[in-house]
Amino acid sequence: MKQFSLFLTILSGVFCSISQPASAQDKELTLYTQRHYAFDQEVYARFQEQTGIKINVVKASADELITRLEEEGANTAADLFMATDGGALYRAHSAGLLQPTTSTTALEKVKPPLREKDAHWVAMTKRARVIVHSKDRVDPSELSTYEALADKKWRGRIVVRSSTNSYNQALLTTIIDADGRDKALEWATAVRKNMARPPQGSDRDQVRAISAGLADVAIVNTYYIGLLETSEEQKDRDVAAAVKIFFPNQDDRGTHINISGLGIVKASKKADLANQFIDFLLSEEIQKLYPANTFEYPVVEGTPLSDRQLKWGEFKADDVDFSVLGKLHADAIKVFNEAGWE
Ligand SMILES: [Fe+2]
Predict the structure, then answer these.
(1) Which of the two ends of the chain, N or C, has the fewest CB atoms closer than 10 A to its terminal CB?
(2) Which helix (H) or strand (E) holds 38?
(3) Which domain holds residue 242?
């Protein structure tokens, strides 16, 4: 119902802009995005309120959007490309699809690796992919690294989503980078053997499986715990209460993080408006809102974390260059296939 009324709000916005004079049409940006979070609509509404610039959203997977941008070429309607994976941003830039941002905030307040060195893309949020475990059946002292999930003691106790998911692919690129391809293949094979069921469902479904007693540990992005903890549904909040977050690899390279970020499409003729939008997403106002609303981590230094994130704990993040996520993307898919990880 909420989604339906949101749809009506968006629809009425579309009609409003149609009835406005032609010049108002120029104050629109088309955003190709992989993101799927309800809160983003609020961010776009605030941006429109403050600048008069309307954001038209086109949602699909990163690969679909990259293919579409390539096919549409100079005729694309897209002004901005947004992804939930540094690897996808790297691939979009490598395909020559992006132009550098001149956003002062991006250039001054977000440094590589959180942006491409020449600012062809910039991160807006960070996300941590962690181990989540049953409060009752697993003691945190039993956990250490992603690598250690290959141990036989986890046989029949792990759940993870499918290897077709970009979050898992990104994680595996960092394991290939750190340990080498052979070790990464051994790892993926052993973890697949340790699974309580074939990979399926979303990150939230893995947490539900732990809560239901089907498994003891899962690999999940932390913000999904935030979404469950704050859900309107009591049963979601119960699911979240059954698990704890564990930040792996604290004694070596750090916990795997990925980014959500965006770049201006090379063919866009509205770079000035697009730069305003990037400035807005990196503003203190919006950076402060992500930690408490999408439960992602801010990218602009000095932005406070939310109480919920502080309660989960501070952690050492893997500072791998996100280009690794793009360069090793195809290898990661091959390794997953060879490991029999569906
Ligand atoms: Fe997600």
Answers:
(1) N
(2) helix 38-51
(3) 127-255+315-338
Nearest Cα to 183, choosing from 325, 327, 342, 339? 339
Residues 46, 80: Cα–Cα separation, whole Å? 18
pLDDT in tens, 96-141: 999 999 999 999 999 999 999 999 999 999 999 999 999 999 999 9
Q: How many domains does the chain have?
A: 2
Using the mean position of ligand 1's atoms as its centre, give its distance from the Cα of residue 196 in Å: 23
Residue 193 near residue 115 (C-beta atoms within 8 A): no
Residues 6+ apart with CB under 8 A from 172: 163, 184, 188, 332, 335, 336
Clarify whether residues 137 and 194 are in a common domain.
yes
Residue 21 C-alpha to ligand 1 middle, in angstroms? 38
Interatomic CA distance for residues 309 and 250, integer angstroms: 17
261 Cα to the center of ligand 1, angstroms = 13
Tokens at 130, concatenated: 């962690």
Q: Which residue has the tokens 């540990």?
A: 217
Q: How far apart are CA 31 and CA 37, in angstroms?
A: 14
- Return the closest-CA partner of residue 28 out of 221, 288, 194, 274: 274
- Cα of 129 from ligand 1 centre, angstroms: 10
Q: Do 176 and 239 sit in the same domain of this protein?
A: yes
Helix axes 62-72, 86-94, angle to 10 degrees: 20
80-83 and 158-159 strand pairing: unpaired
| Torsion angle in degrees (nearest 10) through CA of 322, 303, 295, 184 | 20
**Any idea which residue has 């402060």 for tokens?**
288
